Amino acid sequence: MRKTKKWAALTVAASIMLTTAACGSNSNNGGDNNAAASNSPSTAANESQNTGGPKPELRALFRAGGDYNTDPIALMLQEKTGYTVKYDSLPTDKPEDKLNLLMASAEPYDIVTTNGDGGFKALYADYAKKGALVDLTPLIEKYGQNIKASVSQESLDAVKVDGKIYAIPTRTIEYVGVSLMIRKDWLDKLNLQVPTTLDELTHVLQEFKEKDPGGNGSNNTPMSIKGDTPMVDNIAGAFGIANEWNAVDGKLVPRAIDPAFKDYLTYMTDLYKQGLLDKEFAINKDATMKEKFTSGRAGVIPLHWADIPAIDDALKKNFPDAQYVYVPALKGKDGKAGLAQMDGFDRLTFIPKASKHPEDAIKWIDAKLEPETFKDLAIGVEGVHHTVQDGNYYPILPAFNDERSSGSNFVSGVDETNYPIYWQARVRKDDRLYAGFDFLNNQQPKEVDMPNLLGLAPYLPQYSADNAQLTQMANDYTVKVIVGGESLDKFDDYVAKFQKNGGEDSYNEVNEWYATVQK
Amino acid sequence: MMHIHKRTFSDWALDAFVYGFMIVLGLITLLPMVHVFATSVSAEWALLSGKVNLLPVGFQLDTLTKVFTSHVFVRAFGVSVFVTVVGTALSILLTAVTAYPLSKRHLPGVSYVMVLFVFTMLFNGGLIPNYLLIRQLHLIDTLWSLILPGMISVFNMLIIKSYYEGLPEALEESARIDGAKTYTILFRILLPLSMPVLATIALFYAVGFWNDYFNPMLYINDPALKTLQLHLRDVVMEVDSSNAINKSADDLMNMSPEGIRAATVVASTIPILLVYPFLQKYFIKGALVGSVKG
């Protein structure tokens, strides 16, 4: 009777208390949800005095990648910069949608760091144009000495929107990632040398097919590739079309309509007809292709050096005497050779207008680029995480892996001169990985490095809109031609279709930009 | 009453067909799970070479151990358990309490309130208004944003309501004669009686909370509050080919091996698999609730 009434009332009271407690603990008091302009953050207390009151807690939004709040790097940064930062992360799945939601509801993040690729470049340009981002140009002038010393003008120019800098770009390490990996023990068995030209490659593959050094019988696959990448690295470079867009006579030409593309198709079709290329390549996924290599059926596959350790383990388990090497940049008929080199931006860091502490945000970014702090962020402390020999950095395992492996997530802009050198400590983690990386990046002649020139372009709307479907069209066409489903006589029809569907507009737009960066 | 007649050929044929079909269907559902289990306990080199089908190759428990002891997994698991347990408990309590007065037809305004409830079943504000609502209630980045919005499912409430309506009036009347007030009747008499239906609804709620992926993705930003489904999605999506092109070298070097993905799936499924047999008894009984009157 009275007891049950009390009990019920207690439940109701408890739920109300719980709800209010939950509300109270949530420090986010996002005011009204007018996005964009109206929110000019009050910086009265945080004027240029560096002394002054305690540093405010900053809120950062990073892309997906584990719990940043408990990462040793976060703790180190807090000590060195003096700022406490609360990190949130975007989901792995459709992060652009979540980012849009957060920006539109004016969530007061101080720093947002996203990927630097196409989709996010577009979003960034969009936000900048709509006035949702803080113009960093004056802030960098005032507080960003380290930023100016570290980030090159070229990089900053690439992220300007309407002549103003709205983001700090994090430049990618320029490196060559992929080449053909070949079974050296098969070569040795047949007394063959590692191929150095396209003709030699064809010859080696023919020998693999006839002599079957792997003893695979009907499963023998001299070379295997995967269906979504019919433009094979290294081979494409031998035709002068190493990247998606290549410089030809002062203009950037997409390889899908490059005249050399026809020669590439002829070559690959020929390989397929002779049975030297995996008959099933069109349905091969990345994993399938690697399976064929590690289970000893395929003699050659395109491989990124990051994958080498795992492949090595699997291959050696199945065939303890197996050996593999990278094929160097193959020379085509005009002596052309090329390996695609990554370039562009890994990350873009910007400050939303809704931020409550934009000046402190820039100060934090600047503090991270202070030389000692930056080195610590990238490769840790000498003697604890890394050692130095002849100006090269070597990781100390396992400390390096445990405490600095997520370094690339915490950077907002890098010291573009030194970071590539520091970063090599990461590839020295595993000797086999380093051997592959070293071969492709240090031992190949410099002329074969073909940087991806489009990586440094600012946001190009026409190009971004059409790129995905044009690439798909080109890939589909390539696969069809190689398997013999379509004849090369119709090449011009295909080019016309490509141009009509946005190829021409993209070409014009890209070259308009390219003309401005040519010296 | 059994038909006793000789089994003709067509009987056998039909049986064979039905059995065959069901077996195939069962296998289609079962074999992929077996493959995932096998993947989670196989050695990495075997996975890369494509040697694992239904049986593990290079049996090892390291991957599973690594997942079970990884603090990110454990925390995500804990968050999911908290949300499910607290959510289900609150949901059942409030749904039952809501259903009770609505089952009393003689109360004034009952049908009007019912209309309001049913209205919410048909119309929904949509994604953005919901998000803004949660935001203005300051529930973003709290676990309550996962529990409160879905706490009373009108559909479940209607099930409980019709169950109460099916109980005889005489029961309550006699209780009142003995001096019981409303709360006593509800908590001491009706709730214990409706255990089967409550258990079923509790199971519906529990499964709903456990599997919910959308709400956490929308409302949770803090990595510490990620639910298990969110964590699982992150781990499995890591190798999605649509992301692959844009991976930097660092990402590629840090990518978790194949076994970890399968092991995370297994680690997330095992608890449900263990709990389910115990609840199955109620589930089957409860699913028949209301189907036969009297």
Detail the topology: elements first, then pairings:
The complex is a heterodimer of chains A (about 525) and B (about 290).
Chain A lengths: L1 H24 L32 E5 L9 H10 L3 E5 L5 H10 L6 E5 L2 H12 L7 H7 L1 H6 L2 H6 L1 E2 L2 E2 L1 E5 L6 E6 H6 L8 H14 L9 E3 L21 E4 L2 E4 L4 H15 L12 H9 L3 E7 L3 H11 L5 E3 L12 E3 L3 E6 L7 H11 L2 H9 L6 E4 L2 E4 L3 H6 L2 H4 L8 H9 L3 H11 L7 E3 L9 H22 L8 H27 L2
Parallel strand pairs in A: 1-2, 1-3, 8-11, 13-17
Antiparallel strand pairs in A: 3-14, 4-5, 6-14, 7-11, 7-12, 9-10, 15-16
Helix pairs in contact in A: 19-20
Chain B lengths: L8 H32 L3 H5 L13 H8 L1 H32 L7 H13 L4 H10 L7 H4 L6 H13 L2 H9 L4 H12 L1 H17 L2 H6 L8 H10 L3 H4 L4 H6 L3 H30 L7
Q: TL;DR of this structure?
A:
The complex is a heterodimer of chains A (519) and B (294). Chain A has 519 residues and is α/β, with parallel strands linked by helices. Chain A is built from 20 helices and 17 strands.
Structure description:
The complex is a heterodimer of chains A (519) and B (294). Chain A contains 20 helices and 17 strands. In chain A, the strands form 6 sheets. Chain A has a 5-stranded mixed beta sheet with strand order 2-1-3-14-6. Chain A has a 4-stranded mixed beta sheet with strand order 8-11-7-12. Chain B has 294 residues and is mainly alpha-helical. Chain B has 2 domains: 45 residues, no CATH class; 216 residues, MetI-like fold (Orthogonal Bundle), CATH 1.10.3720.10. Chain B is 72% helix and 0% strand. Chains A and B meet through helix 1, strand 2, helix 3, helix 11 and helix 12 of A and helix 2, helix 4, helix 6, helix 10 and helix 13 of B.
Strand content of chain A: 5-15%
Number of domains of chain A: 2
Low-confidence stretches of chain A: 13-51
| N-end to C-end Cα span of chain A | 90 Å
Secondary-structure-derived class of chain B: mainly alpha
Number of domains of chain B: 2
Helix content of chain A: 40-55%
Number of helices of chain A: 20
Largest sheet of chain A: 5 strands, mixed
Write the CATH homologous superfamily of the largest domain in chain B: MetI-like
CATH architecture call of the largest domain in chain B? Orthogonal Bundle
Number of helices of chain B: 16
Overall mean pLDDT score of chain B?
Answer: 83
Gap from first CA to last CA of chain B: 23 Å
Radius of gyration of chain B: 25 Å
| Residues in helix, % of chain B | over 70%
Give the number of DSSP strands of chain B: 0
Order of helices and strands of chain B: HHHHHHHHHHHHHHHH
